[in-house]
Amino acid sequence: MQFEIADGHSYATLEIDFDEGERVGIEPGSMVTRSENVRVETTSGDDGIGGMLKRAVSDEIDVMTTYFIAESDGAHALLAPDYLGDIARVELDGTEGVKVQSGGLLAWSEGVERGTARNEASNFFSSGELTVLKLDGKGSAFISAFGAVRKETVTAEDPLIVDEDHLLAWTDGLSASRQKDSNLTSSLLGGEGFVTKLSGEGSAWVQTRDPMVLFGPSGN
C-alpha cells in the first residue's frame, strides 16, 4: 500500500494505491474518486450494539467505520478533507498511541486500531466534544487540518501551551490539562478563553487556523 499527499498545503489530497486484499479506513464523506475495483465496506465497529450505545452516551459521533478494500491489484482512491488545509502523516510504531481531536482523522492503514478516549478535562475543546479519537497499533494515520500542520516536540523541561482549538493531535506520553486564559481568541466564541497545557515527553500536532472561527457560533 502506498500513500501520497498531493496538491499543495492549502488544498491537500491523499492518493492511495493498494493491491488485492489490502484495506484502508477512511473518514466518511472524504472520497473524491476511487477505481472500480475498490469495494466499500461500512461497519459499526467490533463491539456491536453495546459499543454503539456506549459511544452514544459518551458523545462519540463517529459510530460507523468505512473501509476501502482492493478487490484486485492496482486499486486507487483519492481522498480530501472537509477543511481547506494540509494533511500530515503520523506513524505509529506499536509502542505509543496517539489521540486525535474528533474530525481530524482522514484515513488510516491496516494495523492501526481506532477507538475513543474521554477528554482529560470537562468540555475540553470549544467544539464541545467529550471524547477524542484514540489510535494504537502499528501503521500510518493521516490527519487533516484547517490551515497548515506543525509538529511540536514537548519535553518535561519545556511544556507546550496551545490555544485549544488549534490542537489537532498528541502522543499518549503527554498529559493534557485545561487552563483559563481570557486574553485569547477563544473568548470571542464562548465568553471564556481556554488553553491546553501539554506536559511530559512526546509530540503534538497543531493546526495554524481555528475552525471554530469559521464554523463556530460566531462564524455562522
TrEMBL record:
Membrane-crossing segments per the record: none
Cross-referenced NCBIfam families: TIGR00266 family protein (TIGR00266)
Name under which the protein is recorded: TIGR00266 family protein
Species of provenance: Halogeometricum borinquense (strain ATCC 700274 / DSM 11551 / JCM 10706 / KCTC 4070 / PR3)
